[in-house]
Amino acid sequence: MSDNHPKESESPSVEHVCGFVTLVGKPNVGKSTLLNAMLGEKLAIISDKPQTTRNRIPGVLTQDAGQIIFVDTPGIHRAKGLLNTYMVDVAHEALGDTDVVALLVEAGIGREGEVGVPDVIREVLEKLGETHRPVILVLNKIDQLNREQLLPIIDAWRAVYNFTEIVPVSALAGDGVAALVETFMRYLPSGPALYPQDALTDLPERFIATEIIREQLFHQLDKELPYSVAVTVESWNDRASEGRVDVHAVIAVERDSQKGIVIGRGGKLIKKVGTNARKALQRLLGTKVNLKLFVKVEKGWTNSTRGMRDMGYSS
Q: Helix, strand or coil for residue 104?
């Protein structure tokens, strides 16, 4: 007679989970910084300017317990113009197809013991209340608080919405990030991994290249950066036999005066952007990169359906 019971030395199998976690919030609350911190790799570009993220940025985290596909989204705000409307639509659409929602807010509290909840966030919470999905409130930037301030802030947010859990973190310092990942794992459905173990994202390399170049524009231009700047890759030639990749990219602006700003005096600024972006691309691709940048004027593209499509911002 065979014994089908597991031996005492055998441990029961642990259920593997896999699912999507969508990061939402207002601009500049730290969504991209948090995504990079959870992945342990830099995927999403970061700057202190609002609306840095313009598309959905998926990042894959694989652990023994399961796999999380994070989706970083543009900041939710009152949209004006086609480009802003596109970004807000991207964020809202991402909420329709996710297992867990992570709402990021800056940890802060007003003089009356209340937290400020913008109308756009209240509207998101109203929609989420109808879906019955787990909603984790992530209180970011706790490194800017005294610890005794934290409990009143948590209590104040509990009065705003029936959050599944509230987790304080500092995405920049890394405090609470591991605990947040464990929290997400608890609310994901069981299932096999959707991506290979070493996958970081399913974004094409061409898209990542445009983001790297755009990030360098943010860093080099700072306050002079035209909001309408966009980057497209015109050609991508993988010359494996020669050990390099040739990339030709175009930086688009809306006015002639902006073109001069991007190029800089004597072409120094665009040269620095290209040098730094090339180095970042070489680290990413693990091969030599020959990067050529061009600047052109596309008047009014941010409010043109065709211009939006040409720049890669179309549903």
A: strand
Looking up tokens 């005794």 gives 148
Distances (CA, A) of 105 to 69, 245, 271: 21, 40, 37
Paired tokens of 63? 């652990």
Residue 128 has a pLDDT of 83
Tokens of 278: 């090339």
Q: How far is CA 25 from CA 91, 162, 240, 311, in A?
A: 9, 17, 41, 25
Sequence ranges of the chain with CATH classification 3.40.50.300: 17-186
DSSP SS3 for 292: strand
Report the predicted TM-score, pTM, of the whole model to 2 decimal places.
0.71
Residue 85's pLDDT is 58
CA distances from 241 to 49, 203, 238, 287 (A): 41, 25, 9, 11
Largest CA distance in the chain: 87
Superfamily of domain 17-186: P-loop containing nucleotide triphosphate hydrolases (3.40.50.300)
Can you name the residues that pair with 292 across neighbouring β-strands?
Answer: 248
For residue 315, pLDDT over 70 is answered with no
CATH number of 205-310: 3.30.300.20
Q: Give the span between the Cα atoms of 103 and 47, in whole angstroms.
A: 20
pLDDT, tens digit, for every residue of 115-134? 778 788 888 888 888 888 89
- The dihedrals phi and psi of 139, each to the nearest 5 degrees, come to -85, 100
Are the C-beta atoms of residues 103 and 137 closer than 8 Å to each other? yes
Strand 244-253 relative to strand 288-297: parallel, antiparallel, unpaired? Answer: parallel
Q: Are 18 and 191 in contact (CB under 8 A)?
A: yes
Which residues, in sequence order, are CB contacts of 87 under 8 Å at separation 6+? 51, 53, 54, 74, 75, 79
* Residue type at 215 in one-letter notation: E
Residues of the chain with CATH 3.30.300.20: 205-310
